[in-house]
User: Fold these one by one.
Assistant:
Number 1:
Amino acid sequence: MLFQSILIGLVAVFMVLDSRMLGRLNFERPLITCTIVGLIMGNVETGLLVGAQMEMITLGMMSIGASGVDMNIGAITGCALVITSGASIETALTIAVPMTLLDQLLTTVADIIRIQLCHMCDGYVEKSQYAMARRVHILFGPLVYSVFKFIPVFFAVYFGNDLINTIVNAVPEFIMSGVSLGANLISFFGFAMLLSTMINKKNAVFFFLGFVIAAYSGLGLTAIAVISIVVTVLLYQIKFGNSSSSLQAAGADIDELDELDDELDD
Amino acid sequence: MSKKGLEIQRNYPLNKKVKEFFWGGWCMQALWNYERQMNTAFMWGISKTIDRLYPDPEEDEKKKEAYRRSLEFFNITPQFGAFVLGLTAAMEEEYADNPETFDPKMINSVKVALMGPLSGIGDSLFQGTVRVIAMSIGISLAQQGSILGPILAMLISFGVSFPITWFGAKLGYLNGQKYLEQISKSNLMDKIMYGCSVAGLMVIGGMVASLVNITTPLAYGEALQLQVILDGIMPKLIPLALTGVMYFLVKKGVKPMVVIISCFIVGIILNYFGILAI
């Protein structure tokens, strides 16, 4: 158990370093981290299901700069504890919320430390110790992040098992099913957050287009994603198709190619 | 004196320079701080360029100045950070070449001017569109118990992120300023934003309709089931309405943590009285 708790703690480190040192490759998302937790605990199936559930609920939550909330730490802890305690998948979310609160508290402490590190960096540059200034950024920064994610996850996973069992046994059934309804309500908050960053009066129709196609046809999200890309390319050609021929400068050509690549990659 | 550094910098292999900007971009948030955000990251990404440009100990004052310049406030979507690093490195080179005519203030003003627009596009491209599409596909596969879900989600994210960061760094360094003019002339920013919003919004619409199905068990006898009536009007009306309510809360600026906790309380109440169910 000690060994596994350490490994789960390291998953949390991997999670935070994704956005710190890999430019946010989305490896931090619950779908990925919970699957890894499942692999470590020898129960990939539960890991996948918890990951999908947590991902669905938090899909809309963006972290732009300092604002926003992420439940990634909560998802990792919740997934690990659901697997060790054998509780229902919805329990993961119930665990994730207090973990997120704890994480935010610790993050505030880490924020203060990082401001000091930033000043340290200035200091080394003033003293012409450039190699040290570099090291503060690439070594100390990630180290602070890692420590502050590792510790809460490690302790929660190592000591949380009995606590979870006690709580799950003590809480009446209607509360548990109410909590899982509540968890599903949260996902709509995520959708709304995502919407609010992109929608305006002119493009709102595309939101309804996606909704109507999915609602009436019952097609899955993969199908909707593919359709949306096709529609985008189509509209792009209609809207910008004529104007691009007039821009034959070398740079513009690269632009078009780049963008086509992006869309294909999507 | 300074020409020696310039020679070292110009003879240094291009791909190695691009590699520095690439990792500089990806490590943009390694020491994110509330005071100047990604300033140390910018310094880290461009430090090797500065070191090469001013190799002599007598030039330490110039070197220090360049380091100080790089430690100013900076914030950007990491993948686009590489482009700005490349562009700035080219400008630092230009300054080292013509220290009399080139105003070093230009360097930071270009940096500052790029932050806003590039972050706006970057966030809606990477977090709003790519992430949402990758994860949507991932979720639907994972729900069927397939490990391909998370793997595919990772591959899609990587497949978009990697080339944009790498070629962004290269283009920024080689032709950054010319490239910027082209971008503003061809309205590329608007085009990308348009594409992102169409694809992103359609997928979000699909998510609302297909990811979470919330129904109402409310009924008056066998004949009058509210859910059947609602489905007669349009399927998935309740999820659509819930999204509307939440959108209102987001626009009101209610704190995320408050909403999350209220959701649990409301969920327990609605479930207890049999008003909504999953």
Number 2:
Amino acid sequence: MVRVSAALGVPLLLYAVGPLVVAQEARSSPSALGTIRGRVEFLRDQPSPERRPAIADLGMPARRDRPDQRIAVVYLESAPRGAFEERPGPTVVLDQRNENFVPHVLAITTGTSVEFRNSDRTYHNVFSLSKANSFDLGRYPPGRSKSVRFDHAGIVRVFCEIHSHMNAFILVFAHRHFALTNAEGDYRIDGVPPGTYTVSVWHPFLAAKSGSVRIPERGGEASLDFALS
Amino acid sequence: MIRSSYARALVFAAAATAPGGVLASDPPAPPPRRLTLGLEAVASAATSDPGYFNDTSYGRSAMRLLRLRVDVSLRLGARAALLAEGRADNGEGGTLSALYLRLRPMPDRPFDIQAGRIPPVFGAFARRGYGADNPLISQPLMYQYLTSLRADSLPASADDLLVMRGRGWRTHYPIGSGAWDRGLPVIAGDRWDTGAEVRIGAEPLSLSASISQGTLSDPRVRDDNGGKQVSGRLELRPTVGFVLGASASRGEYVSREAAGALPRALGRDAYTQKALGADAEYSRGYWVLRAEGVLSQWGVPRVQAPLVTDSVRSWGGFLEARYKVRPGLFAAARVDHLGFSEVQGTLFGGRPTPWDAPVWRAEAGAGYSLRRNLLLKAVLQHNWRQGVRPGSGSEGVAGAQALLWF
């Protein structure tokens, strides 16, 4: 069963990734881990961000790719206690291609470094003014990369200073119990200890939702679907 | 001038044709929207400017401006778009400051045509369209400072010119309109001309050319003298982050009424504005460096002694730098000069004297982004004007600006 969270995406997620949150009834038993899986259905699509009208240009602007907005992040609002003690994942890449961040949404654990690669034909200047993880990488040319380590949990909105339509989201979790949806909207969170969890889904522009799921003592799978509108 | 009602009609007509929402079964990457909007609100305030250094018209200053701006792009298939910009300044009525059709006849070839009230091909600063593209508050002197020349009122002698030097914010001459009005800037950075332009090529080399109703210093919606301006620009991008530009322009600037008031017809060629420009931009890391220079020449009539024996000229140039100090915070500075050629009359002891008072400006400031689309700027500016009456030759101005855009 899915219930709509009254609090929408941002505050809900910030609360969820805080290091003090511990699952109710959750027990860390490595021998009986379970999986939460399901599908996120997008009942409505958010138009991708457009360039501001290039009113002062002397011709048509260059063609650009458009971000795939049909990616959501599913995560446990209340994670097992041991989940907060795990080491950060390897460096992940957020690429810039045809004036577009690829992927548009990234989910990582605290302490992970993100490599901002410029695979475009022009300069980019990646920056974020997010309170927990602000940074500005300056302008760098095609073929170059710059990295940022994210040490604080939260939502990081990433922009390009030169191309105002370019934006991406990095969700920094204090635990590893999260998953991105694939092209079909399916998700799968493995390694979940037995217990009852609140599972939430976050999307950049659609209202967040959450539901409850129970992993039995013997482990196994639990299913939870969402419909975002 | 095109009024705001036309702009509103355009927006509503365009909105009516915008596509609806996209269903979940559609492909992941939807096609671009037909209608896109850009909104910008600018509020600038500054200390007093008794020397009128920042005036863009009599009683209007580039440092004291409340502007609401709406940009619209309506895509008409893969090969065409209609673009418009509406502005309302200082609470006054709205104007349509740009309205043109953009065509790319061959979608895969870098060849573009634009017709209507179009962006200028000359120079670089005037196409830094949005407020955030300007790291400071003022405009460079050659794009804003009002010289003492006018299109509708002409000096009869060198003395007429010399009497008005340093008074571009409110000037008049014996020939043509007798009303006091503002003079002409070298390039009107805030107003666009009406005509057609083409651009051929893309990176690393492109060539743009236009034919239009007015001139660099006096862009117009309707022609007022039967002459046309021809402008061109060659742009080279030798490497990423480095842009070099060279521009040229020639157009008749004197109005039909003023030319008709002359004692004898001197031919259109006598009243042209000709200009050459060069610009460069280099950016890397946290730096953006820009430089631009323009040499402009205006023909003036030779009616009575002491005669203006040659065309009058001006040269302007600026250097600008911006450095990002930390996320959201930058510092910027610009040094700027506008100089004028000499004429000889009976005033100033009969010595050759610049026909308008040379001006220098230095401006430095900082900007801070509270949010990505909310920028605050604060600047200190100092201006110097040579050889004018005491009290208006040197002054400092402090200014602040808030800029919100979507």
